[in-house]
Amino acid sequence: MLSIEEAKSRLETAGQSHVLQFCTELSAEERNALLEEISQLKPEELIEHCRAAAEAASRHSSADGRLDARMKPVPPEFIGSVSKSDKETLKTWGDEGLLQISQDKVAVLLLAGGQGTRLGVPYPKGMYSVGLPSGKTLYQIQAERIQKVQELANVKHGCKCTVPWYIMTSEFTLGPTEKFFKDHQYFGLCPSNVVMFEQRMIPAVGFDGKIILEKKNKIAMAPDGNGGLYRALVDNKILEDMERRSVEYLHVYCVDNILVKMADPVFIGFCVNKGADCGAKVVDKAYPAEPVGVVCRVDGVYQVIEYSEIQPETAELRGPGGELLFSAGNICNHFFTRGFLKEVAEKFESQLKQHVAIKKVPFVDGEGNLVKPTKPNGIKMEKFVFDVFQFSKKFVAFEVLREEEFSPLKNADGAPLDTPTTARRSLLAQHYRWALTAGGNFLDEQDKPIPPKHSVTQNEDPPAICEISPLISYFGEGLEKLLNQKNLKSPFLLDENEAKNLVQTT
């Protein structure tokens, strides 16, 4: 640990000596905690960070739409599509993906550094239950999908494969996440195949370029965005772990999408088939002004343009068939080769764009009093995981159906979109469709038939409540032998016990 003198010297070099202004008032324990934080800050990086934050904030306030004229949609030949491909093509891609999974070449990487603040809970989002009949959390659903895709590969290829699960956490989420997994026996996964690591924390900075103190002995820190992944892969030797396990392909995703297909064989197979080093799943934008980023090209380079950076008239542009020209909505669901991640981490990480978030950051004033600001007073800098698309030698996009693959959980109930209710409805509607397709018939509590409805929106519950465990079916496969011509009483929960009962009554 640094001595007081070493800390003073380091901070003076960076022009941040105010960080120690309350040092004489601190207990030994408090002082050591502050010195430990300071020891993580390299003077040259701190100088650059504070300078860049102040500069970026001034640019942020005067941002305009100059990117619009340089934007081009992704060329059709670099886009795969679930809805526009025939069954044989989709099967070819799926078979390729399962082959790679069976050879232990595929891993999933979860971006889980954020807290559930907007959800109104003090714990990580992955621990959240949206109110399914089973009571399962996002973490459990995802863990069971990994088990199922391993099983599908094992059955097809007569092997026993492993899909490692890398989980990037932050200072805020690592401890609770580790405890949650241990308390739940890793949801049936082998603990050695669940690898948690921590992304870097960086200081929040005031508009004057000075580090903000949130307590007398604590710097206001924030995770460096999901683009902090590339630095964290190096800091935590994760790339070496992947190489040791012979992992070649990574499926990277955000924790809050309840419909995410873990190590999706079709997506993996498509990307491998195309020889891609980088790929992104996209959904058709629901409407021109939808607040999602757009995957496109700018000056010939692939990137994601945030919705706030696109002028309304550009968002409204349409192609010859009336479709939106810039329709490829980013859902933070990506494919990377390990070689590409290694190249980014070693060569390009320092070139990633810093994105500005102007926030209300609680701070202590010159008298040591805690102040909760009523208007934004601080700058948090973030890097985004998708900003590496520009370095790809072979980028592809893969268009999927929103109702099957994208329903994020971001806001508490009461908000119009992306709430526990909309997430729950999305999953239950998907499972209801699967059951109907498999030939199931639903009954109400009085054993009266419930008329089927094949199209259900996020604004309504499906006519019958049906939840299907990921351990039973990954994407609707294998259900006909269980459900065909069966009367299913709503609410219906198809788990392993119910599956055994159905087999016995067949």
Descriptive terms for the model:
506 residues, alpha/beta, eight-stranded mixed β-sheet, 15 helices, 31% helix, 19% strand, Nucleotide-diphossugar_trans
Explain this structure.
This protein is an alpha/beta fold and 506 residues long. The chain has helices spanning 4-13, 28-39, 43-60, 87-102, 138-157, 174-183, 229-235, 238-244, 265-273, 312-315, 338-348, 402-405, 420-437, 480-483, 496-504; strands at residues 71-72, 79-81, 106-111, 165-169, 194-198, 201-203, 205-206, 213-215, 218-219, 221-223, 249-254, 278-284, 294-298, 301-305, 328-337, 355-359, 363-364, 370-371, 378-382, 395-399, 441-443, 466-468, 487-489, 492-494. An eight-stranded mixed beta sheet has the order 2-20-12-15-11-3-4-5. Helix 4 (87-102) crosses helix 5 and helix 7 crosses helix 11. It comes from Cirrhinus molitorella (mud carp). This is UDP-N-acetylhexosamine pyrophosphorylase-like protein 1.
Per-chain topology:
Layout: H1 4-13, H2 28-39, H3 43-60, E1 71-72, E2 79-81, H4 87-102, E3 106-111, H5 138-157, E4 165-169, H6 174-183, E5 194-198, E6 201-203, E7 205-206, E8 213-215, E9 218-219, E10 221-223, H7 229-235, H8 238-244, E11 249-254, H9 265-273, E12 278-284, E13 294-298, E14 301-305, H10 312-315, E15 328-337, H11 338-348, E16 355-359, E17 363-364, E18 370-371, E19 378-382, E20 395-399, H12 402-405, H13 420-437, E21 441-443, E22 466-468, H14 480-483, E23 487-489, E24 492-494, H15 496-504
Parallel strand pairs: 2-20, 3-4, 3-11, 4-5, 12-20, 21-23, 22-24
Antiparallel strand pairs: 1-13, 6-10, 7-19, 8-9, 11-15, 12-15, 13-14, 16-19, 17-18
Helix pairs in contact: 4-5, 4-9, 7-11
